[in-house]
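Study this fold:
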Amino acid sequence: MRLDVHGKIAAADIAFYAPVFVVTGYLALKHGCGKALGWLFLVLLSIIRLAFGILVVAMEGHGKPSLGLFITASILASVGLTLLLMASLGFLRTVASTGFSDKALLPRFLDRTQMILVIAIALSIAGGTLRIPTNKPSTQKTGQKLVKAGVVIVTVTFASLIGFTVYFWAHQKRLTAARRMLLRAFTLAIPFLVVRIVYSILGAFASTSFSKWSPVRGSWRAFLVMGLIMEFVVVLVYAVTGVSLPDSKEERADGARIASP
């Protein structure tokens, strides 16, 4: 089976996320249930991205792939960004869990933010399903509105995460070395996430799901540079940080040192 450029990119996607799935699964086990939320979302992201790559390659095997495959692949592509932000939020939630016991509303607000991202995923899935050209114009219009609402929620949520990051850096003396490592990882990821979100915004506000900003049948250059590579960099930053994080015993000792007068 010969693959076009989209198929080759999908194959590279599979080759990247297969080992990432193993590594993030290990990190989720290493850091324990209480601190594994961010890593678990990266595991889920890996599964979603593997499924996306497999679907695109499968589409290449059909002369005329079904509309169902196209819709599913497009939805998987859009959901991936939200999962990456949920992983980022999980890391910031871990940062907030130590050193901010006097700020009881902070963890609660982060938890509520996570629920908002779940809503964004639901809107993206519903909107992507309704937006297809074979539906009635009114149905397509509804789908367009849902997709736009989802990406707006994602953008506003991302801006709030940057605000939390600024706050945490302003109070970094409260944090253990491990928490600062997580905070640094998200800080390094911010510019790449910005580009990735811009790509999603362009796709959401395009006139059709078959525009040049479609990750499945749009411009492969845009998808590769603004979508896939940006995600690769963020995931690598998080994975390297996770491998470098100290174990629980070392972190508890560091926390005790900071808490002591």
Notes: Confidence is low (pLDDT under 50) at residues 255-261. The chain has nine helices and no strands. The longest helix spans residues 137-170. The two ends are 67 Å apart (CA to CA).
